[in-house]
Design goal:
312 residues, 8 helices, 25% helix, single chain, 18 strands
């Protein structure tokens, strides 16, 4: 196997900071300071906390007063949204290329979309476009949230199985599929515990060419099953090797778990997927650039197994 991971030396001498997306016209970071990022989401300006922003130097101080809403953390845990623009719609949309996603202000600072994931959406779409010329491409999206990756896969002709333990998130995914005009494409929505679903798929003999997963640090399944990424991720990935097709295309693990190294994700793929299907493994940070700046905000990590090496 060929394992390529970013490291300090690579960053220092080659300047490869992280994997970033630069063509997301409806989204941009306007400024970062004091633990907050000021963002534009298709005309809506939000201020949201981010633990990586540990400096207090504002680059564009005058812009912060333009925020339509701000999420403020509480000293007692959690936090809440403060709406400054009373005319702000409770839901709105954002576009990326030919896809349309529905947004709203959620608890714990989220909006329903992680824009840095456009880096992965782009790879998903390119892989499917290439392979779907010769065969049907089947995609399994686990911990699938509001379905941005599912929409990306559908848009290039794949059939998708979308699995999440939250019915509310699955319903939101259906809205995103419809907003992108893909509601008649082949997608199945499953509200279930991911591990139990995979165990059933093994018994059924179902296979997938691409497996995507974005596991939380901790979570509960649809029937209160406990998920802990440190104790459960390896076993899940190993289990998933049994539902890979004979000629798999890609296996992608994405993570926002603080303290978990991208090299660990790569090692998991090396010990599981790559033992069954020899391929290429890469890992890196993903992040977002700040507008008109050389600053980049790290937003998570990924590791990717693929049969054919993707070149950025």
């Amino acid at each position: 196997s060929n394992i390529v991971c970013s490291n300090f030396i690579k960053k220092l001498f080659l300047g490869d900071v992280m994997k970033v997306i630069k063509n997301f016209n409806d989204y941009e970071i306007l400024d970062m300071a004091n633990g907050q990022k000021l963002e534009r989401w298709n005309g809506v300006i939000l201020s949201r906390p981010d633990p990586q922003i540990i400096w207090n130097e504002k680059t564009r101080a005058s812009l912060w007063d333009s925020a339509d809403a701000k999420y403020k953390r509480s000293n007692k845990g959690g936090g809440e949204w403060y709406i400054y623009n009373k005319d702000m719609d409770s839901t709105w949309q954002i576009k990326w290329e030919d896809l349309t996603f529905n947004l709203k202000l959620m608890g714990f600072k989220h909006t329903g979309i992680f824009p840095e994931q456009a880096y992965n959406w782009n790879i998903i779409r390119k892989k499917i476009s290439e392979e779907s010329k010769n065969r049907e491409v089947k995609v399994l999206n686990l911990f699938a949230y509001t379905g941005a990756a599912s929409v990306a896969a559908l848009s290039k002709g794949a059939s998708v199985v979308h699995v999440d333990s939250s019915r509310g998130m699955v319903d939101w995914a259906k809205e995103n599929v419809k907003s992108s005009g893909l509601e008649n494409k082949p997608i199945r929505y499953i509200v279930d515990d991911v591990v139990k679903f995979i165990e059933r798929e093994i018994r059924r003999g179902n296979k997938y060419d691409i497996i995507l997963m974005d596991p939380p640090s901790f979570g509960r399944g649809s029937n209160k099953e406990i998920w802990n990424i440190e104790t459960d991720l390896f076993n899940l990935v190993k289990l998933c090797t049994q539902v890979l097709s004979d000629k798999p295309i890609m296996f992608l693990i994405n993570s926002y778990t603080t303290g978990l190294s991208m090299s660990v994700l790569a090692d998991i793929l090396k010990l599981t997927v790559n033992k069954v299907h020899q391929g290429y493994i890469s890992c890196d940070e993903i992040g977002l650039p700040m507008k008109d700046s050389d600053l980049y905000l790290p937003c998570g990590i990924f590791a990717r197994w693929e049969s054919e090496k993707y070149e950025d």
